Amino acid sequence: MTAPPAVTVVGVDAAGRPPHPDAHAALAGARLVVGAARHLAALPVLPGCPTIVLGPLAPALDRLAAAVEAGAPAVVLASGDPGLFGIVRRLRVAGLPVRVLPAVSSVAAAFARAGLDWDGAAVVTAHGRDPGPALNACRALPAVAVLTAPGAGATEIGAGLTGWPRHLVVAEHLGTDAERVTWTTPEQAATRAWADPHVLLSLAPGALPAGGPAPSALPGVGPMRTDNQPAAAPAGGWALPESAYHHRDSMITKVEVRALAVARLRPRLGRLVWDVGAGSGSVGIECALLGAAVIAVERDPDAPVAANAARHGVHVRVVTGPAPAVLRDLPDPDAVFVGGGGTDVLAAVAARRPGRVVVTLAALDRVAPAVHLLRDAGYTVDGSQLSAARLADLPGGSVRLAATNPVVVLTGESP
Question: Where is the Tetrapyrrole methylase domain (predicted)?
Answer without folding.
Answer: 23-187
